[in-house]
Amino acid sequence: MNSKNLIQIKQFCLYHEIENTFISELHNYGLVNIIVLEEDEYLQPEQLPAVEKMIRLHYDLKINLEGIDAIANLLNKIEALQQNLTATQNKLRLYEQHQTE
């Protein structure tokens, strides 16, 4: 895998002024994926918004990792329910359109 588009964890942590171990702990909870290339650790760019949200939860709101894990799981469930609701509404619209024709 090419590290060109990846975010080096050391640099990310320096920028956000956090410990590298925080990202490792998020990885241990299954909240982020760490990619190891040539003995350096990286994050995928798609993960940045979620990781930055977790940083704010932990450092600004003082929520521990167990709480962050619970919040992340609940947010994922809400997102899945919203997608399911949208799909159901779309099917209902199609059904209603066929009924009126």
UniProtKB/TrEMBL annotation:
The keyword Coiled coil applies. It comes from the Bacteria. It comes from Flavobacterium chilense. Keywords: Coiled coil. This is MerR HTH family regulatory protein. Residues 71-98 form a coiled coil. The keyword Coiled coil applies.
